[in-house]
Amino acid sequence: MLELKQIKKSFGQKLVLKSVSLTAKPGELIHISGINGSGKSTIFKIITGLLKADSGEIKLDENDIVGALIENPNFLEYESAMSNLHFLANLNKRFNEKEVRDLLQYFMLDPDDPEPIVKYSVGMRQKVGIIQAVMENQNIILLDEPTRGIDQESIGLFVAMLKKLRQQNKIIVVASHDQISELKYDRQFVLKKGILQEKQK
Fold first, then answer.
1. What superfamily does domain 2-198 belong to in CATH?
2. N or C: which end of the chain has fewer CB within 10 A?
3. Whole-angstrom Cα distance, residue 161 to residue 170?
4. Selected residue with higher pLDDT from 172 and 181
């Protein structure tokens, strides 16, 4: 379970998050919309510990593992996709080569391609970013503008993957300023003027 209570965050004199509360349960697919700069990425950075909230509370269960794609993913630019994913998964001693190879092939990327990631297109980099967010069997998955630069066929693959992860009882939170029409969310929120409000169905 993921729970945020009254999260606030400022950068200097600018108040970005005024009141952010959210409870997400296993198997839920949640969407957060908001204009660029509204603070969607900031919420994800606070959940993952990359940023510290000024006030408020974050609750995770003891066995929760968070996977995240936040903003533009950073990589070892002169290493291959497989080398990058091996390095990232090994940080937590959770590298599963078969799982990583399968995910790369699923997204039409060659796991044996030695080409460095610096030569990848935006969409290809984004696919590798999605893979690193799910490859360690994470049960809380945060995806920030996940379909940026991705072609329509790959968006279809992405949607199918999220449906499967949802069936596996994962918590999935997608933040984007535009909708992915193929996805049917359990709940939708709008982040506006630092306040997270749930849309009424």
1. P-loop containing nucleotide triphosphate hydrolases (3.40.50.300)
2. C
3. 12
4. 172
